[in-house]
Amino acid sequence: MTTSRTFLVLGATGQTGQHFTRLALEAGHHVRALARTPAKLATTHEHLEVVQGSLEDDLDLPALLEGVEAVVMMVGDVAAQRRRAVNTDLVRALVPAMRRSGTRRLLYQAGGLSAAPGTRLPLALRVVRSTIARDYLGQHADNEAVMRYLDAEARDVEWMVHRAGIGSDGPSKGELHRSSSTSIATFVDCAAYSLRMLDDDSAVHTCDSSRYRRR
């Protein structure tokens, strides 16, 4: 990406969000980060603005979106998402606020076990989701509700969904590329892919996974 932009990052203190924020700043962008606990954000930078708050708050969306070119959502709260669709509620409020502010682009990070609208996960992933990843069923349902809403009611917004197969916080394993299948990737590689994705017009209105390119 060659043009400096201002991103609103929701989930900047999370494992992928920390990497995304650092990489965006290193690339010359400005970041406004919403953080429940600002001290958890390891990065400091002159182009980083930290706003204290959480998705459970009554957020001042017009203020958060002022001057923002793109919103990046890398948020998840397993316990809260067992009770209600936290992310869906936020996106339903966020999209109209984006329309009013003129913020055009939204990147939403979902999990690789969340099915895109109108599709079904492969059998192997359905088995993993219902067994090993059973504790995250509420999170997957919330992600899927977000994707259905975006697909059905927000086609005027330049949204893109990264259905990331995040596995660990280890070192980079290579460069991810958009794919119909999923690689188990590191947080830093998922963050780097999402940053590139924001500049990829062909990714608009897609809910794809990412995969390491075979050598």
Task: Explain the overall architecture.
The strands form two sheets. The protein has an eight-stranded mixed beta sheet with strand order 3-2-1-4-5-6-10-8, with helices on both faces. Strands 7-9 form a two-stranded parallel ribbon. Strand 1, helix 1 and strand 2 form a beta-alpha-beta unit. Helices cover 35% and strands 23% of the residues. The protein has seven helices and ten strands. It has helices at residues 15-26, 61-65, 78-83, 86-101, 123-130, 137-153, 187-197; strands at residues 6-10, 30-35, 48-52, 70-73, 105-111, 158-164, 166-168, 176-179, 185-186, 207-212. The protein has one domain: NAD(P)-binding Rossmann-like Domain (Rossmann fold), CATH 3.40.50. By secondary structure, the chain is of the alpha/beta class.
Helix share, percent: 25-40%
Q: How many beta-strand elements?
A: 10
Number of domains: 1
Radius of gyration: 16 Å
Just give the CATH class. Alpha Beta
CATH topology: Rossmann fold
Largest sheet: 8 strands, mixed
Helix-strand string = EHEEHEHHEHHEEEEHE
User: Helical region count?
Assistant: 7
Q: Which CATH architecture is right?
A: 3-Layer(aba) Sandwich
Estimated share of beta-strand residues: 15-25%
End-to-end span in angstroms? 25 Å
CATH superfamily: NAD(P)-binding Rossmann-like Domain
Report the uncertain regions: none
The overall pLDDT, averaged over residues, is 92
**SS-based structural class?**
alpha/beta
Question: What multimeric state do the chains show?
Answer: single chain
Chain-wise SSE layout:
Layout: E1 6-10, H1 15-26, E2 30-35, E3 48-52, H2 61-65, E4 70-73, H3 78-83, H4 86-101, E5 105-111, H5 123-130, H6 137-153, E6 158-164, E7 166-168, E8 176-179, E9 185-186, H7 187-197, E10 207-212
Parallel strand pairs: 1-2, 1-4, 2-3, 4-5, 5-6, 6-10, 7-9
Antiparallel strand pairs: 8-10
Helix pairs in contact: 1-7, 4-6
